[in-house]
């Protein structure tokens, strides 16, 4: 038996389903949609699965933007936009579909 975390993840698969419908989003945006649809997870877990998904080819970095503003950590925020990668296998989750249609997120 292999050691460590299993490669397959329900959280990452749910994130694939979200990105399948909204096409691209940054980490916190994915988190907001995730907790509205599925059981609560931590923001840290979302970022872990984004990084792991990029290494597995399930997600890819679409673009990186620097946004000016008045934040507690400084005057600039970096938003990394993700989209589906070549190894993503969306199954077409009905909960995600009805959520995105009700919020007009396409």
Notes on the structure:
The structure is a single chain. It is built from four helices and three strands, in the order αβααββα. By secondary structure, it is of the alpha+beta class. α2 packs across α3. The chain starts with 9 loop residues before the first helix and ends with a helix. The model has no long low-confidence stretch (mean pLDDT 93).
In short:
With 106 residues, the protein is an alpha+beta fold. It is built from four helices and three strands; from the N terminus they run H-E-H-H-E-E-H.
What is the element layout, followed by pairings?
Elements: H1 10-22, E1 25-26, H2 27-37, H3 43-56, E2 59-71, E3 74-84, H4 94-103
Antiparallel strand pairs: 1-3, 2-3
Helix pairs in contact: 2-3
Q: Tell me the number of helical segments per DSSP (H or I, 4 or more residues long).
A: 4
Number of strands: 3
Helix content: 40-55%
Low-confidence stretches: none
Task: Describe the sheet with the most strands.
Answer: 3 strands, antiparallel
On the 0 to 100 scale, the average pLDDT is 93
Name the helix and strand elements from N-terminus to C-terminus, one letter apiece.
HEHHEEH
Structural class: alpha+beta
Rg from alpha-carbon coordinates: 14 Å
Shape: globular
Terminal-residue CA separation: 42 Å
Order of the strands making up the biggest sheet: 1-3-2
| Proportion in β-strands | 15-25%
Q: Which terms summarize this structure?
A:
single chain, 106 residues, alpha+beta, 3-stranded antiparallel sheet, 4 helices, 3 strands, 25% strand, globular
